[in-house]
Amino acid sequence: xxxxxxxxxxxxxxxxxxxxxxxxxxxxxxxxxxxxxxxxxxxxxxxxxxxxxxxxxxxxxxxxxxxxxxxxxxxxxxxxxxxxxxxxxxxxxxxxxxxxxxxxxxxxxxxxxxxxxxxxxxxxxxxxxxxxxxxxxxxxxxxxxxxxxxxxxxxxxxxxxxxxxxxxxxxxxxxxxxxxxxxxxxxxxxxxxxxxxxxxxxxxxxxxxxxxxxxxxxxxxxxxxxxxxxxxxxxxxxxxxxxxxxxxxxxxxxxxxxxxxxxxxxxxxxxxxxxxxxxxxxxxxxxxxxxxxxxxxxxxxxxxxxxxxxxxxxxxxxxxxxxxxxxxxxxxxxxxxxxxxxxxxxxxxxxxxxxxxxxxxxxxxxxxxxxxxxxxxxxxxxxxxxxxxxxxxxxxxxxxxxxxxxxxxxxxxxxxxxxxxxxxxxxxxxxxxxxxxxxxxxxxxxxxxxxxxxxxxxxxxxxxxxxxxxxxxxxxxxxxxxxxxxxxxxxxxxxxxxxxxxxxxxxxxxxxxxxxxxxxxxxxxxxxxxxxxxxxxxxxxxxxxxxxxxxxxxxxxxxxxxxxxxxxxxxxxxxx
Length: 576
Hints:
Structural class: alpha/beta
Number of helices: 19
Number of strands: 19
Largest sheet: 9 strands, mixed
Mean pLDDT: 87
Helix content: 25-40%
Radius of gyration: 25 Å
């Protein structure tokens, strides 16, 4: 039986057996039983690259499911929403892939297995196939060796997650940090000995290599008897380089869908589309979690303490930028489970257009959009049915803006923690994309750099473009004046100024905590709203603003995350 394929993301891509949450031995995933004899396991890449690729990767899984193939996409141990056992082990990830294969054989009754692996996930898929009967292997820009992967991650670590002054984020001793994800020495040691070119047998009889030839894999697998096909991978960089701008590589993914579905035959007794069953809880030390659908098909993960006390505060985590609900560097998952160990429930949700929630109307961006408040209200409604107790909202960057708007307008929210908000009110005249892409730093940052001896030496050698800096400072000064005039002329937001709304929050008994990385661009909006004096800010807020030194905008360092966690725990203690 042949299956018609559709472009990834097409409105026609609606499977009769859609993906549903599933848990298998501590692994969280999305599963469709399909109607064919063939099952497909999607093996994600690792860390920051997967954070960027999350939503397109989900679109690929949905596209494969529309073909009728049984489909399973999952999080590795210690990643996303899976449990934490074997988090720092390559062997643990390989075992997870083999566990996913068994799930397709046992639950979907498939005879044929296809593994689709992206980047490091392709490397892992090839390793897993060496000990399993795999009929087809699709490797998307896979690494032939672990050393090649480590080299690329070291290069990425110098450019991703920079400090507010533009300097690289210092690496923590014994650890490689890329986009908030920490790769420890044990995992690095395992990676360093991987070499797929030393395989003694082909991992599958049919192999599709998508992307540039990686370390001679094609000739090696062909010499071992595999039928090897290669094709280019247009759009790879846009897929894995930045979660804010990740794009689905439609041409490459459509080719993958066609390849995995080609020649698939129906099962003798096709599966019947039944209402999806809830996934089994994933459990850990002092916590357990369950997937949750609410509102307009919004998705989130409810994290519960093992022993629940009535009326304890509940935490609602909203997305930072377009990061999936597990968070930058998986911070949100880690924090939610820590809080559950202390007795606090939480919901980490995806707004429409982010992560595992559906698209927004017109596929517009949710960033700095006030209609995202409807999603927050749906989450509050859901939490009220699930738990009793005061609710605190936590957001970073654009999520901090949303959290501020929500706590001002929703009396059900008793507190908020705002991390590095760029602004409290969005100026409709500002273009979101332009603001995010702004590469020029403010004048105080340049002045600080010029105080450093190394910067002076670079200036003397002509390596620093003074003219460009001067023009940038001039434009920034003009821009600030223009913004202030615009603020004076535009209508006041409902509820008054930022200071007036904060006063109203305090009057109703709500708590507000502000956390900033030292030098963060959002501090300008804070000073505009509450004044430059830390003492004056503290009087208006009811407590000091927390400033974290040595942290990037996303709080990648472990110490920075610990400081933010202390702030949240302090607020929760006040509400108990």
